[in-house]
Design brief:
Elements lengths: L1 E4 L11 H8 L12 E6 L3 E9 L8 E3 L3 E9 L1 E8 L5 E3 L6 E3 L6 E6 L2 E5 L3 E7 L5 E10 L3
Antiparallel strand pairs: 1-10, 2-3, 3-12, 4-8, 5-10, 5-12, 6-9, 6-11, 7-8
Length: about 150
């Protein structure tokens, strides 16, 4: 897992060409003005979704993981908290359908606070529980999906 400010994406572009292309999406100043929905960058290899929602209670959120895609989650407006835990330490509650599986929340896990202007990268080994906050927050988020190399 990586977390940083959106203006620091250049620090991570050497990790892979696909990841660099996915991170480049975050440099588009018009992202927050786009309508909710899916936008293709490179077909099913790299695409992103604009999402607007009100954060939920932690008790209503659930852990998820992906096997074919890396998630880049960036907060454009508002703020949210995302839980994190290693996938291999969690119990599966719903197997992959088609690329998302859900996992039982552990008693203890790390929490990452993401205010506007920040992003996090979740690899397939990173279970993450997005979209919650201590108090409701209106969020505009972009989730970039980058197919795993190989």
């Amino acid at each position: 897992m990586i977390a940083d400010k959106i203006d620091k994406t250049g620090l991570y572009t050497n990790l892979s060409q696909r990841l660099a292309k996915g991170l480049a999406v975050l440099e588009d100043p018009s992202l927050a003005k786009k309508q909710d929905g899916r936008y293709e960058v490179d077909g099913n290899e790299i695409f992103y979704m604009i999402q607007r929602y009100t954060t939920k209670k932690k008790s209503d959120a659930r852990f998820e993981a992906h096997r074919n895609y890396i998630d880049i989650q960036a907060i454009l407006q508002g703020s949210e908290t995302i839980g994190w835990a290693p996938t291999d330490q969690l119990e599966v509650t719903q197997p992959y359908k088609p690329d998302v599986m859900f996992l039982k929340s552990p008693e203890q896990f790390s929490e990452l606070y993401l205010p506007a202007g920040t992003f996090a990268v979740f690899n397939p080994s990173d279970a993450h529980m997005p979209c919650y906050h201590a108090s409701p927050s209106e969020v505009t988020k972009v989730v970039v999906k980058v197919r795993v190399d190989g």
